[in-house]
Design brief:
alpha/beta; globular
């Protein structure tokens, strides 16, 4: 089963994504902070993927991507963005290294 690391400060968003992924046959690991994400990245098997909220209480998806680069990890990152303009999205994809950007819906 492929593991997917979910990094999102929102408990409800983590639960929602985890439930959808389990039903689709994935094994989600859900954490709420950059520090917890770093600990989990070090344990991820080859083939894992990271889904990270662009803005976290202690960092951002871009910072997580850059940290991975310096530590030698190469897991693809899908960034979830809310209310960002086109330049911010381009920055996290091109300069930040995200493989994709998903627009989250806020209520």
């Amino acid at each position: 089963m492929n593991k997917i690391l979910i990094v999102d400060a929102s408990d409800s968003d983590r639960r929602l994504m985890s439930g959808l992924l389990v039903r689709s046959g994935y094994e989600p690991i859900a954490v709420e902070s950059m520090e917890a994400a770093k600990e989990e990245v070090a344990k991820l098997p080859p083939g894992a993927v990271i889904v990270a909220d662009y803005k976290l209480p202690d960092g951002s998806a871009k910072e997580l991507i850059n940290w991975q680069k310096t530590e030698g990890f190469k897991f693809p990152v899908i960034a979830i963005v809310n209310n960002l303009n086109g330049l911010d999205i381009l920055e996290v994809m091109k300069d930040g290294g995200a493989v994709d950007v998903v627009s989250g819906v806020t209520n």
